[in-house]
Specification:
155 residues, alpha+beta, 5 helices, 60s Ribosomal Protein L30, Chain: A, single chain, globular
Length: 155
């Protein structure tokens, strides 16, 4: 068994859709980035890559590569899952946390779990999604960004 950890944060800005865990969440701002900037999915990709010693998401899907411009991060997660499986590992569980002052994550949790589970070929029960605020502190607390962290176990 091996463990990996991932973290990502993106700035919020106008004229973008907010996508977390592959779910479109109604909000007045979206995450800025080269891809769809889905911080939750990016954190999971980094955790999975780290768990099998394959570096990080930026090495495999650089923001300098036009193939990844505006790509769904779920597609990146599918490719990451293939890399993990090619190394001979399967995913046991994924535990995540989203750091955001707004919007509320609860109504979209099940959709996110199902999207992520489909992408990595596990039962949705193997994926846990938590959310918390930063009590108004820092970039996230001011509502300027959203972050996510993930821990995975592979065997």
């Amino acid at each position: 068994m091996q463990i990996g950890i991932g973290y990502d944060v993106h700035r919020l800005g106008p004229d973008r859709q907010l996508i977390l865990g592959g779910a479109l969440i109604p909000f007045d701002k979206g995450l800025l980035g080269h891809s769809d900037a889905d911080v939750l999915t990016h954190a999971i990709c980094d955790a999975l890559l780290g768990s099998v010693g394959l570096g990080d998401i930026g090495q495999h899907f650089p923001d300098t590569d036009s193939r990844y411009k505006d790509i769904s991060s779920l597609k990146l997660l599918v490719l990451t899952n293939k890399m993990v499986r090619q190394k001979g590992y399967g995913i046991c569980n994924i535990d995540t946390i989203i750091f955001a002052e707004a919007p509320r994550i609860g109504p979209y949790r099940k959709t996110m779990q199902e999207n992520l589970a489909r992408a990595v070929e596990v039962d949705p029960g193997c994926i846990n999604i938590k959310a918390t605020t930063t009590e108004g502190l820092g970039v996230i607390g001011r509502g300027d960004g959203i972050g996510a962290m993930s821990v995975v176990l592979v065997a």
